[in-house]
Amino acid sequence: MSDAQLEILASRAGLAVDWIDANGRPQKVAPAVLRNVLIGLGHPASTAQEIDASLLELQAVQQDRHLPPLLTSDVGVGLDLGRYFAPETPCEIHLEDGSRLNLKLDSEAVLPGLIPVGYQQVHISDQYFTLAVAPERCFSVGDAVDNPIPRVWGLSAQLYSLRRPGDGGFGDTQALEDLVRVAGERGADAVAISPLHAMFSADTGRYSPYSPSSRLFLNSLYAAPGAILGERALRDAIDAAGLTERFAQLEDLKLIDWPSAADAKQKLLQALYEGFIAGDHPLHPDFASFRHAGGEALENHCRFEAIQEMRAARGENLDWRQWPEHWHDPRGAALEAFAEEYAERIGYFAFCQWLIHRCLERAQTAARSAGMGIGLIADLAVGADGAGSQAWSFQDELLASLTVGAPPDILNRSGQGWGISAFSPEGLIRNGFRAFIDMLRANFAHAGGLRIDHVMGLQRLWVIPNGSAPADGAYLYYPVDDLLRLLSLESHRHQAIVLGEDLGTVPDGLREKLSARSMLGMRVLLFEQDNTHFKPILDWPDNALATTSTHDLPTLNGWWHGRDIDWNARLGFVDANGEIEWRHHRQREREGLRSALSQDPQNFREESHEADQVVDAAVRFLGHTRAPLVLLPLEDALGINEQANLPGTIDTHPNWSRRLPGNSEALLDGADAARRLELLACARLQAAERDQ
Q: What does the record give as the reaction this protein catalyses (predicted)?
């Protein structure tokens, strides 16, 4: 079998045969790995004959002169259509506003750059396609706060960690409303929240917000039903379901008991639904309108939820890839028959989606009413579970046979497997980027901003065949320019900023592409150092947000005290010698950070605990940087030791289960939090005065 032909096929399929690792060393993907990844992409490659056949098929598709359903371009820039049409061919453009443009391709078959921003319909020689014309850049922080040189701040919060009386054991949108109101009163312009993607209602033990069932819909457990249906309906439903004592017990826990709390919340939602459909409720028209607007995508998600519920009750496999073949097609006759038989359950899941959408809409309205220029910043996970609703509903556009992860590096010598699926580049193009656009619209819908986890995935992702080790993967490349144009377009349409989490190994040129589109990168205080020498204030860039930490890192207080080292040593991730070396290095880092923070004479003047002073000084330090937006995690505002998630663990560390110590409406009133927010607000004002 010829490795040369295999590598040609891999390259044509968008795979990187050669790549550079985190140490700067060139690497080559093994032929066996290439074959397995290609099979996952839908290109058989086990034999020489299969390779030749797959190569011929792929070449035919790539050389096809048939127009794809959607092309992208930048406003004011011509679009080369020479592959499809002859020079000087007349064309008619149907604009979104109902008007038309009559143009002609130029002598080189370029469509003139005279078409306005938007999704415009192009008619040329009896062929039609959608042209997505993108603005030059995304809606920016400056646009949001009406200041060309913004120096604003906000908070970041793990939604589940918030508290309020009657929350049932984990944070919800009412607790979020309480938080955005008090944060807005103190001058915050944004609150960034953990992902609210739809999870698996029939499998409540799966609660990592970064491994969702679907990024098109929301986790209905976070709904605060009383805010929509009224407190009386809520009390009646709690009584009817016998949940009063159970909710009180769940609320008293320091850690969230997800299976029990989710079960209780689902019982409440079921009781509310039964009451809602029993009478002539004034919100029936709104629910009906929501369901109609949701269309096929909402219907498919609700059918999926109902099927999983039914199979869970029977003790059957929940992974759709293991279902009977006739249930694999969401549009098949078997699903139509199921939908008719289980209409009530499908209606229930639609009701749950309606509730959480209306609740999140309220929270964003509350944020803007509190004076925030941005409001909520939603979080978009890098992928969705291959066994979930989104992968089932969009099988031609998602790669359910491959998972996403990371290759081996200095910190993870075996690589990482994240257990989630990604988009198919070929499927996206073939379907006019439908699934990507729908996903963006769903996540922009009730937010003033969107954080994109692992933004490098817009250009390339490390994909691993199901069942293989993380090291046995390859980089798959995406049409990054098309995706960035669509992001810019949707950002402007929703008047929402875009943040790209660009920590780790970033492909050459990507940060420049993001910056040119006004997509902010991300800079974390703990990483902004060169071997314990921390970057000075004015060396921080003005094209990235600044923050003290993230959900995957120790809190600042925890870092100072070495809690991350404690956990890694306890779980055996580092041996005794490694632990000693790590602690010695951490001491040097502490000295380096204190040295950098001491450059401000206002720091370390109080007679208080050293760690508290470090957090105060770090908050002031970040406030003085040139970052357009500084986000302070609530854990650091409160001086908490423990982090939200410890990567590499599942049940040996309480990931996604920690709760904050007080109710949201009073959370910022404590001495530490109030002082730090005042320090941050003042530092941001001083930075604004300096940089204007």
A: Transfers a segment of a (1->4)-alpha-D-glucan to a new position in an acceptor, which may be glucose or a (1->4)-alpha-D-glucan
